Amino acid sequence: MIAISLSPNTESDDVWVAIKTFCSPWTWKDGKSIGLVENWFRDKFKTDTVYSFNSGRTALYAILKSFTIGTGDEVIVQAFTCVAVPEVVMWAGAKPIYSDIDNSYNIDSSKLEKLITKKTKAVIVQHTFGVPARIKEIGKIAKKYNLVLIEDCAHSLGATVDGKLVGSFGDAAFFSFGRDKVISSVFGGVAVINKIQRSKDLKILKKLKNFYNSLSTPSSFWILQQLLHPILFHLLILPFYNFFELGKVFLVLFQRLKLLSFPIQQCEYAGKMPDGFLTRYPNGLAILAFNQLRKLDRFNRKRVSIARKYGKTIPGAIYVRYPMQLRSRNIIVKIAKKKGIFLGNWYHCVIDPFRCPLAAVGYRYGSCTNAERLAEGIVNLPTHPGMRERDVERVIMLVSSP
Ligand SMILES: Cc1ncc(COP(=O)(O)O)c(C=O)c1O
């Protein structure tokens, strides 16, 4: 079976780390791994200001609050994104304004200036699939209009532009360690603030620190749910996924029993924040993330080598997934499933997932036509580290057969 989104980064050593952590509940909330993860980012991004949270969403919220972005403000985000981005803008009290994308699935910088009004405070630049956006060009526009430039690096840890890491171009950046991101600890994220020079910037730091200090660590039960994810997936769900769909039954059962969590909760589809969502990053998940960070270069090298087999690649991109436009997308996805190949659906809807009512997150259908067109035909090919040569060949055969 080849599955793009079912715990794709987890290797056997990660399962062992999860089992050991599961059996050591005294390490779940506090410990040195939080510092290890944050220091890894401090070192890579050459900044002292790094804070870890339970998710990329909380990291983005922390950034918006620190830069005093809220009620009455507008924040530009791209269409062809996950609801996890615009909903956070709404949580902060601001309004998401959607920009269309170009054919690289990133914000179309030529359309950006037209969206800027007196209310615009920030632009969030998503490096979709780990392919860098035109960050230098967008940086110039942000500077011209005095906008806060926030990089959404949820898909792009390790991607570069002219040898410089994405995440170091903006005023701030956030990363995600969600279950199918570049590295995974099921939930988790980091906020990075760059360029702290002036006294105004010190106020931003103070706000961020105060926000962090106001948060608590997630409950032991929540941490237990996340630690069970790699363990149950690798011992019970994945090995039996295609065996009379037994693995799928296990997955639904464990979710019903609340032993496994959902990545996004129902109320988020309407732009609402789940109760008690904003929390710090617990040590138990930082242990998982640090084990993955040590493998990041190998993971990304493998992703790029697979992407090259699928087609054209862009220098500096890390391809957490490989995007492809297919005319008969839905048919091929169905055929693939029958063959045990689960292709990806980022993003079959301009504001994903499908269940998300677009109006609830302020999107007007027809406003970003290129994003809508690309969402109709997109399929993501898997590039994860567990793929073997013959798996890649099977995927190529599938998408290249008429
Ligand atoms: C592009 C993008 N940005 C931000 C996020 C939010 O990250 P997290 O799930 O860690 O909150 C996600 C994932 O959900 C995403 O795909």
UniProtKB/TrEMBL annotation:
The modification N6-(pyridoxal phosphate)lysine is found at K181. Keywords: Aminotransferase, Pyridoxal phosphate, Transferase. Transmembrane segments: none annotated. GO terms for biological process: polysaccharide biosynthetic process. The active site is at K181 (proton acceptor). GO terms for molecular function: pyridoxal phosphate binding; transaminase activity. InterPro entries: DegT/StrS_aminotransferase, PyrdxlP-dep_Trfase, PyrdxlP-dep_Trfase_major, PyrdxlP-dep_Trfase_small. Gene3D superfamilies: Aspartate Aminotransferase, domain 1 (3.90.1150.10), Type I PLP-dependent aspartate aminotransferase-like (Major domain) (3.40.640.10). The keyword Hydrolase does not apply. Belongs to the DegT/DnrJ/EryC1 family. PANTHER family: DTDP-4-AMINO-4,6-DIDEOXYGALACTOSE TRANSAMINASE (PTHR30244:SF34), TRANSAMINASE (PTHR30244). This is DegT/DnrJ/EryC1/StrS aminotransferase.
